[in-house]
């Protein structure tokens, strides 16, 4: 990766360069201390050398920061796209079927509880995208900031839609299970009343 290669180059260059600059500075100091006839020229060259070295270090630092910022932005775009794809995939996994009877409806309810647990794991990824977008928007302006906002909004809107769909399905399954439980209670009661009627009708009529 370019950023890692430059980091290695920066570390090696700074280390080797500082060693060489220190060596030349030591040589200049020795010449000046010995009262060299060209003391003023030596001091001037030493200052020029140190100034050039400081400029080079600043250039390396600026380049490192630019690469780090570029890497962070590209990582945000990658994370946002990946999170959006996962959220949309989970949205497609939501079934429409609610069950034909109490047993299947209760089974669907258990499956949905597991599904909700799965999508809850995505909330941390969504939150990370939102936090990264908020931080990066401050560092960029114009079209780039707008593009960051678009990526974040796409993720946030898809996440809100998924949560809404999931909550709606949970309520629908609750209503379905309650309906089947009610119908079973009604059926059991009707069967019991039929039994009581048969008992009454089966008894001898008084003479």
From TrEMBL:
SUPFAM superfamilies the UniProt entry points to: Spectrin repeat (SSF46966)
Which terms are listed as keywords in the entry?
Actin-binding, Coiled coil, Repeat
Q: Name one Pfam family in it.
A: Spectrin
- Which residue windows are coiled coil? 112-146
Task: Give one GO molecular function term.
Answer: actin binding
Which InterPro entries does the entry mention?
Answer: Spectrin/alpha-actinin, Spectrin_repeat
- Please give the superkingdom of this protein's source: Eukaryota
* Descriptive protein name: SPTN2 protein
Naturally occurring in which organism (per UniProt): Grus americana (Whooping crane)
């Amino acid at each position: 990766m370019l950023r890692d290669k430059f980091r290695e180059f920066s570390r090696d260059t700074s280390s080797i360069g500082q060693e060489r600059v220190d060596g030349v500075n030591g040589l200049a100091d020795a010449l000046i201390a010995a009262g060299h006839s060209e003391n003023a020229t030596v001091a001037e060259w030493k200052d020029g050398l140190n100034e050039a070295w400081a400029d080079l270090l600043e250039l390396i630092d600026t380049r490192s920061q630019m690469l780090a910022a570029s890497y962070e932005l590209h990582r945000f775009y990658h994370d946002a796209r990946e999170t959006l794809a996962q959220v949309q995939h989970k949205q497609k996994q939501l079934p429409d079927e609610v069950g034909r009877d109490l047993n299947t409806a209760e089974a669907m309810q258990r499956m949905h509880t597991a599904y909700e647990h799965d999508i809850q794991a995505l909330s941390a990824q969504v939150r990370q995208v939102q936090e990264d977008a908020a931080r990066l928007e401050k560092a960029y302006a114009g079209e780039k900031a707008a593009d960051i906002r678009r990526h974040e909004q796409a993720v946030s809107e898809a996440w809100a839609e998924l949560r809404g769909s999931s909550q709606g399905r949970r309520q629908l399954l609750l209503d379905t299970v309650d309906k089947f439980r009610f119908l079973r209670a009604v059926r059991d009661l009707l069967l019991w009343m039929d039994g009581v009627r048969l008992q009454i009708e089966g008894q001898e009529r008084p003479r």
